[in-house]
Write a structure and sequence with these properties.
Largest interface: A-B, 29 and 23 residues
Strand order of the largest sheet of chain B: 2-1-3-4-5
Number of strands of chain A: 7
Order of helices and strands of chain A: HEHEEHHEEHEE
Largest sheet of chain A: 7 strands, antiparallel
Number of strands of chain B: 5
Distance between the termini of chain A: 14 Å
Helix content of chain B: 40-55%
Oligomer: heterodimer
């Protein structure tokens, strides 16, 4: 993907996390990210879009990030409320996807967004995403987040 | 005037955020109902008096567009103002929704100020 495209994804991710969840992020070097990789539990949040633009957004991170986002968005949640953590990740994915498709396709075409889904993935799957050519990696509050935004059809 | 509000979104987090944001607007709220999809929302509107609906578009089972279309066919529900709160940015979609009777469209995230201004405008609430 082009440098400009990656910049759009990077800016949108960073801005959305800051504005919606008060989480500060920086893009990371993948080698550095691989050194940070441990045996945490990972979530993968993904959704598709179709219509004027077709493709998919995937966001993978550790479970703790869901907790931080939920906590910040709601001003406090009880510990271990997994459903809210998952829900928060879905919503962040949803907002990022909406912004990205509008940024790339413009405001004229109708683009249908799917409902985001969250699954758990293991370290190997996370590592595969991290090393994917099309992925961007971020350090969000000292946790790894991998973002893959792919356009399949315009 | 104290409002009965219905918030429709498949995300519990979003429903909580909109609820909190509404309470920060300073507008008098009597009761906040919520629903996780359009079908549930229609059931609430059948059972409860609702003054205004805030809805997302993309939801499982029944989305916001279909819900608005069904509301439009009901003599009583068609009078309830609907505000869409969504991540989508298509002006074509906004135009379509407006033609189906949606009163306003707000993009997430929504601030209390934006929400207050839109609600006051739609319901004709004047500053005292």
């Amino acid at each position: 993907m082009s440098e400009q495209f990656n910049e759009i994804v990077e800016e949108t991710y960073i801005e959305t996390l800051e504005n919606l969840a008060f989480v500060f992020s920086d893009k990371m070097d993948k080698e550095e990210a691989l050194e940070m990789l441990d045996d945490s539990e990972f979530y993968l949040s993904s959704m598709t879009f179709s219509g004027g633009l077709e493709g998919r957004l995937k966001l993978a991170t550790v479970r703790e990030v869901g907790g931080i986002i939920a906590e910040n968005m709601l001003g406090g949640v009880e510990d271990g409320n997994e459903n809210l953590y998952i829900d928060s990740l879905k919503e962040i994915t949803n907002v990022i996807c909406g912004k990205l498709v509008t940024e790339i396709a413009g405001t004229e075409p109708i683009i249908d967004l799917s409902v985001p889904e969250v699954t758990t993935i293991d370290r190997d799957n996370f590592k595969e995403m991290l090393t994917d050519k099309g992925s961007l990696v971020f350090n969000s509050e000292e946790y790894l987040v991998v973002v893959i935004f792919k356009i399949e059809k315009k | 005037m104290s409002l009965n509000v219905l918030i429709v979104d498949d995300s519990k987090v979003v429903r909580k955020i909109i609820s909190k944001t509404l309470k920060l607007t300073g507008i008098a709220i009597s009761e906040i109902h919520d629903a996780s999809n359009g079908k549930e929302a229609l059931e609430v509107m059948n059972d409860e008096w609702i003054d205004i609906v805030f809805t997302d578009i993309n939801m499982p089972i029944m989305g916001g567009v279909e819900m608005v279309e069904k509301m439009d066919k009901d003599g009583l529900m068609q009078t309830i103002p609907v505000i869409v709160i969504s991540t989508e940015g298509s002006e074509t979609r906004i135009e379509q929704l407006t033609q189906k009777g949606v009163k306003a469209y707000l993009r997430k995230p929504v601030t209390p100020e934006k929400l207050r201004d839109v609600v006051k405008d739609i319901l004709g609430i004047k500053d005292e």
